[in-house]
């Protein structure tokens, strides 16, 4: 099974216009970066451009059922 990790250590603060970035790793490899700002969230896959999403799309992504792992996902 793949191991995911997201690490955040920060005092409480209000997010302004600048992005607050969460780097998401799977098995120690960077999957992408979730960028959160006052305006809207965005997702940037490793090596790709940012893709803006709505707050509703972000909420749906966190609440939908996880996809089944591919057979060789850990290789």
UniProtKB/TrEMBL annotation:
Superkingdom per UniProt: Bacteria
Protein name: Uncharacterized protein
Native organism: Roseateles puraquae
Highest classification ranks of the organism: Bacteria, Pseudomonadati, Pseudomonadota, Betaproteobacteria, Burkholderiales
